[in-house]
Amino acid sequence: MDGNQLTARFIAETRWEDLPAEVQEKARMCLVDNLGATLAGTPTRVSHICADYAQATWPADKATILLHGQRASAVGAAFANAAAANGIDTDDGLIYAYGHGGAQIFPASLAVAEALDLNGERFLAGMVAGYEVAHRMGRCWHDDHDVYQACGSWGSVASAAAAANLMDLTEAQAWHALGISDYQAPNLPMMRDIDHPAMVKHGIHWGAMTGVMSAEMAARGFTGIPSLLGMEKYRDWTKDIGQHYIMVDGVGWKMKNYACCGWAHAGVEGAYDLVQENDIALDDIERIVVEAFHETVRLGTRLPATTEEAQFNLAWPVAAMLVDGEIGPDQTLEHRLSDPKIRDMAQKIEVVESDELNELCRLYRAGDPKGCFGSIVNIKLKDGREYTSGIKDGGMTVEAQEWTRETMAEKFCWLAETVMVPDKIDEILDMAWHLDEIDSVRELTEKKK
Questions:
Q1: What is the band of 365 on the pLDDT scale with cuts at 50, 70, 90?
Q2: What are the residues facing 251 on neighbouring strands?
Q3: Would you say residue 397 lies in a domain?
Q4: Predicted confidence (pLDDT) per residue in 200-229, tens digit
């Protein structure tokens, strides 16, 4: 049995009650993180555009487009909610896959589960199926493609896996869903959007849409090719699916106050720590130089005009953290991009490439614990004094940071408070933690219309 067949069997057979306790808890944590990211992303312009487009293109009364008061088919809701889930770039990242998984898996799972009126256990099990395929498919995808592609490409397959599980597809149908979503996955040359940030971003909305659509087509008898997971050269990456759950240690969450591209986190951490530890007055700063790996250098230091340009940037998040002490929706949405204090600070920031940090990035992408998305920050004051941070990782390491329910709840509340009142936040958070106990996912979506 090849990796494609093993994966299809895993998708068809995965059920909540059979999952180890640590996998179940990780799934709950992933739910809370993704939900917070999605809610906070709904005010973005891309979320409004995609919500309107989804309702117009896939009109139906099947699934909720969160906080927009609109409904659509499962495909449409997955598309629109995925746009929100990555709207301010505060969603999770996956080891080996080198990109975002939950912002696709969560919306795809939620849309299908709501459309089919499934219970919380079924929804969470579908997410687990999606995450386990995401880690493996992402790794295969990057190895198979010469151009670094954004996560909506391999995320299409992960979303198809989640949808196939929730739809109770047979093993044979799941096999085809994998192949359809692999073959029809969007082509997403990531670095072109880094150079010219736009709403296409990671292609996450296309990934969720393609995945759900692929599972629905497979259910109707549409056929696909063998996916990359079935290739013999990837046998070692797929043979343990259903036995080793990569998501337990392989899902990394962005820390509170970091709503921006993960490549910028280390620079943000280094600059903020230097200022705090040395009691530096911002007006005394003459220049900040960030040494970084190649991709961070590509983020650049241009002054942003859109939220996408603010997120795919190095200077803006560093400056926003120094001025406001956080990088959240209030620092990255358009209404704040004309702020004179942040703009003035951003213009003092430079970025230079480092061979040492390039190597650490390479190790991170290979899953080596010694790797990280690192930066070194140097601050020069107007009086000539200079301070250096040493290597910082901004929490972007192979070995995920320690999280508890308390720290996750704190991040959720920080994100959700931008769009709803505290009593509502507490009610939704409590339901999310106990979602495996509810009879219908619609109980959750009803609270977030």
A1: confident
A2: 94
A3: no
A4: 999 999 999 999 999 999 999 999 999 999
